[in-house]
C-alpha cells in the first residue's frame, strides 16, 4: 500500500507543467478511493479495525524488503524524471529572461545585493582596524589579539556553510535577511560590550551572520540575469566588496584617532572612539536589510520548488518594470505556463507505518547521492582552486601590513640614541623621552614629571632620591638598575617593567590602571595602517573593471588561469620589497591582479552547480575558502621578520597550482543556468 501510494503521488503530474490544485487533488482522491482496487491492495473489513491479514506475519519480512528495494528503484527513476524537468526548465527560464530583458529591475537588485556584499567587505577589516585601540581598553595579550583577528574568519566559515545550505531550502531572500539581521544585531552589541570574552563572542556571531552574504548574493543575482549578461554583471557586483573595504578604511581614518569622541561612566564603562567606528561599520548591513525587504524572492528558486504562481508573478514584475523604464509600457508578458520540477518528500512517501530511522536513512541516502553524483571531479577541482587562491591571497594581504610594520620597527630602531655613563643631578624632565638607550648612568635627585616615555631602556643605572610622577610609558624597561629612596606616584611603571632591579626604601603610590603595551602606538602609525588598507583596496578597481569587461568575451577559465599566472609571477617581485613604499606598491599590484581570478571563480561556481544545490555548494566552497585563509594567515605571519623566501614560495606555489587546476574545469560561458 505504501508503494502504491508512492506511485500514485508522482503520476498525477506527468507533464511537469502547472496544473490547477483542486483538479489535481480531485484526481488523486478518485484514484485512491475507486481505481486502486487491486487484489494485492484490497482492503477487507477487519483492516478498518486494525486487524492484520492472516498471512501478513509470514510474508511481512519478505514484503518489506522487496518493497524497500522497489522503492529505491522507483526513486532512481523519479530522480531521472526530475533531472529531465530541470533541464527543460533551464532552457525555458533562459527564454523568459530574454523576454524580460535587462534593465531597471536588475539594477535595483544590483545595488541592494551590493550593500550586502559591501557588509562582508567591511567585516573583514573591522577587527584589524580596532585592535591597536581595543588592546588598551581590554588589556589584550598577543595570543588574544591573534585570536580576535582569526575569529571573524572562523565565524564566516561556519556562516557560509549554514546559510548556504539553508538558502536552498527556504529561499535566497529569506535566508539573506536572517543572516544580515544576525550580523547587524551582534555588530551593534560588540560596540558596547566591555570585556574581551563578550567582544570575542559578538564578533564571532557577527561573522557567522555575514558568512552567508557571498554564497547567497551571487546565486540570488545570477538567477535574474540572462546568459549574455551574467559574467559581466556578476563581476560588476564584486566591486561592492572593494567599496566595503574603502568604506571601512575611510571611517577608521576619520573616527578612531579622534579620542575626544568618547564618554565613560565611572571606571567600569568606557565608550571610546573605536567603538563608534564599530557601530558605523554595521550601517551597510542595516541598510541592506531595509532595501532587501522591497525585493522579491528568486523566481528560479520558486520554480525548483514547484511554486508556479509565485514565480510567474515575480517574472511578470521584472518584465513590466523593465519595459516601463525603457518606454514600452504596452508590452505584455506573454508567458502563460512555466515548467516546474517534480517535488518529493521521502519522509511521507514511505507511509505512516515506517519507523522514523528508516525514513531518515532514506532521506540522507537520497541527499548524499544528489550532492555527490553530479560532477564529483568538478567539485574537487573547484575546492582546490578556492583553497589555493584563498590561502595565498589572504595570507599575503595580512603579511604585507605585518612586513610594513616590521620595516617601520627596523627603521625606528636604526634611529635609536645611546647614552653611556652619563651623570645627571637636580634636573627636572617634563618632556617626552623617546627611542633612547641609557647605560651605566647615575641620576641623583632628579624629577621625571608629566611626561611620556616611548621605547626607553635604562640599563645598569642608579637612581637615588629621584621622583617619578604622572608617567605614561610604552615599550619602556629598566634592566639591572638600582633605586634608592625613590618615589613613584601615579605612574604606569609597574614592577614588571623593572627587570632584575634592586629597590631600597622606594615606594609606589597610586599606580595607573592600564595595560602593558609592548608596541609603539601613535597616531601616525595608525594613519599609515588605514592609508595602506585604503590604497590596497582601491588598487582592486582596475582589475574589477578589466574582469567585468572581458569575462563574457574571453571566458571564465582564461580569466581565472591568466590572473593566477600573472599573480604567481608578481609574487617574485616581493623579494625586492625592502622599503615601506616598495611594499605598498607591491601590495597594490598583487591586489589589482588577483581580483580577476576571484571574480572568475565566483562566476564559475554559480554556473557549475544546479539551482537546487547552488547556494549549498557555494557555501561549502566559501567555508573552505575561509579555512584556507586561516591556515594561510597563520603560516605567513609566523615568518615575519625571519625570512621572505618561505611566504613567497608558498604563495607562488599555491597560485601556480590554482592556475593549473583552472584549466581542468569546464568552461561555462554561453551556457544556460543549470
CATH architecture of the domain at 90-339: Up-down Bundle
Number of helices: 22
Helix coverage percent: 55-70%
Low-confidence runs of at least 5 consecutive residues: 1-62, 346-351, 370-375, 517-521
First-to-last CA distance = 36 Å
Mean pLDDT: 78
CATH homologous superfamily annotation of the domain at 90-339: MFS general substrate transporter like domains
Strand content: 5-15%
The total strand number stands at 16
CATH topology of the domain at 90-339: Growth Hormone, Chain: A
Radius of gyration, taken over Cα atoms and rounded to an integer in Å: 33 Å
How would a textbook summarize the main sheet? 9 strands, parallel
Oligomeric organization of the protein chains:
single chain
Structural class: alpha/beta
CATH class descriptor of the domain at 90-339: Mainly Alpha
Membrane topology: Multi-pass membrane protein
Transmembrane segments: 107-134, 146-164, 176-193, 200-221, 233-256, 276-295, 527-550, 582-604, 616-639, 645-663
GO biological process, one term: neurotransmitter transport
Protein name: Synaptic vesicle glycoprotein 2A
Amino acid at each position: 500500500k505504501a508503494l502504491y501510494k508512492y506511485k500514485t503521488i508522482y503520476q498525477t503530474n506527468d507533464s511537469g507543467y502547472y496544473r490547477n490544485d483542486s483538479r489535481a487533488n480531485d484526481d488523486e482522491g478518485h484514484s485512491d478511493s475507486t481505481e486502486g482496487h487491486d487484489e494485492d491492495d484490497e482492503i477487507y473489513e477487519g483492516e478498518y479495525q486494525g486487524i492484520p491479514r492472516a498471512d501478513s506475519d509470514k510474508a511481512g519480512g519478505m514484503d518489506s524488503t522487496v518493497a524497500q528495494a522497489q522503492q529505491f528503484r522507483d526513486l532512481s527513476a523519479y530522480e531521472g524524471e526530475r533531472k529531465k524537468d530541470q533541464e527543460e526548465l533551464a532552457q525555458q527560464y533562459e527564454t523568459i529572461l530574454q523576454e524580460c530583458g535587462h534593465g531597471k529591475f536588475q539594477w535595483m537588485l544590483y545595488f541592494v545585493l551590493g550593500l550586502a556584499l559591501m557588509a562582508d567587505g567591511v567585516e573583514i577589516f573591522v577587527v584589524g582596524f580596532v585592535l591597536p585601540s581595543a588592546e588598551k581598553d581590554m588589556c589584550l595579550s598577543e595570543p588574544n589579539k591573534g585570536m580576535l583577528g582569526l575569529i571573524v574568519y572562523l565565524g564566516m566559515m561556519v556562516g557560509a556553510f549554514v546559510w548556504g545550505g539553508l538558502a536552498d531550502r527556504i529561499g535566497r531572500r529569506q535566508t539573506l535577511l536572517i543572516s544580515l539581521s544576525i550580523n547587524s544585531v551582534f555588530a551593534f552589541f560588540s560596540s558596547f560590550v566591555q570585556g574581551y570574552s563578550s567582544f570575542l563572542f559578538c564578533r564571532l556571531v557577527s561573522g557567522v551572520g555575514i558568512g552567508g552574504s557571498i554564497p547567497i548574493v551571487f546565486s540570488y543575482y545570477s538567477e535574474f540575469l540572462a546568459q549574455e549578461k551574467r559574467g559581466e554583471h556578476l563581476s560588476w557586483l564584486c566591486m561592492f566588496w572593494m567599496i566595503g573595504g574603502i568604506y571601512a578604511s575611510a571611517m577608521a581614518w576619520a573616527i578612531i584617532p579622534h579620542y575626544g569622541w568618547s564618554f565613560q561612566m565611572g571606571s567600569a564603562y568606557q565608550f571610546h572612539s573605536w567603538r563608534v567606528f564599530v557601530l558605523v561599520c554595521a550601517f551597510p548591513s542595516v541598510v541592506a536589510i531595509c532595501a532587501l525587504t522591497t525585493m522579491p524572492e528568486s523566481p528560479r528558486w520558486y520554480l525548483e520548488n514547484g511554486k508556479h504562481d509565485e514565480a510567474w508573478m515575480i517574472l511578470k514584475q521584472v518584465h513590466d518594470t523593465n519595459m516601463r523604464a525603457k518606454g514600452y509600457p504596452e508590452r505584455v508578458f506573454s508567458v502563460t505556463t512555466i515548467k516546474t520540477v517534480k517535488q518529493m518528500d521521502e519522509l511521507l512517501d514511505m507511509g505512516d507505518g515506517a519507523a522514523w530511522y528508516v525514513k531518515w536513512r532514506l532521506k540522507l541516502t537520497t541527499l548524499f547521492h544528489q550532492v555527490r553524483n553530479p560532477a564529483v571531479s568538478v567539485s574537487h577541482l573547484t575546492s582546490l582552486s578556492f583553497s589555493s587562491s584563498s590561502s595565498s591571497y589572504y595570507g599575503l594581504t595580512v603579511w604585507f601590513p605585518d612586513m610594513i610594520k616590521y620595516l617601520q620597527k627596523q627603521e625606528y630602531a636604526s634611529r635609536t640614541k645611546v647614552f653611556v655613563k652619563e651623570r645627571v643631578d637636580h634636573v627636572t624632565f617634563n618632556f617626552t623621552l623617546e627611542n633612547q638607550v641609557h647605560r651605566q648612568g647615575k641620576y641623583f635627585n632628579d624629577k621625571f614629571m608629566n611626561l611620556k616615555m616611548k621605547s626607553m631602556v635604562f640599563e645598569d643605572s642608579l637612581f637615588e632620591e629621584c621622583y617619578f610622577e604622572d608617567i605614561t610609558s610604552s615599550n619602556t624597561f629598566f634592566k639591572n638598575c638600582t633605586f634608592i629612596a625613590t618615589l613613584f606616584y601615579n605612574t604606569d611603571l609597574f614592577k614588571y617593567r623593572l627587570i632584575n632591579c634592586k629597590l631600597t626604601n622606594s615606594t609606589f603610590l597610586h599606580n595607573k590602571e592600564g595595560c602593558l603595551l609592548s608596541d609603539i602606538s601613535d597616531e601616525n602609525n595608525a594613519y599609515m595602517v588605514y592609508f595602506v588598507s585604503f590604497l590596497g583596496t582601491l588598487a582592486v578597481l582596475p582589475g574589477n573593471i578589466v574582469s567585468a569587461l572581458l569575462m563574457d568575451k574571453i571566458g571564465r577559465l582564461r580569466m581565472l588561469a591568466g590572473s593566477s599566472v600573472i599573480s604567481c609571477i608578481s609574487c617574485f617581485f616581493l623579494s625586492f620589497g625592502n622599503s615601506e613604499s616598495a611594499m605598498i606598491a607591491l601590495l597594490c599590484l598583487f591586489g589589482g591582479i588577483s581580483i580577476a581570478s576571484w571574480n572568475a571563480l565566483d562566476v564559475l561556481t554559480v554556473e557549475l552547480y544546479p539551482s537546487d544545490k547552488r547556494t549549498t555548494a557555494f557555501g561549502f566552497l566559501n567555508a573552505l575558502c575561509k579555512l584556507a585563509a586561516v591556515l594561510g594567515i597563520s603560516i605567513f605571519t609566523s615568518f615575519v621578520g625571519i625570512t621572505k623566501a618561505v611566504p613567497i614560495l608558498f604563495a607562488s606555489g599555491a597560485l601556480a597550482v590554482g592556475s593549473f587546476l583552472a584549466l581542468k574545469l569546464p568552461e561555462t560561458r554561453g551556457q544556460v543556468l543549470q
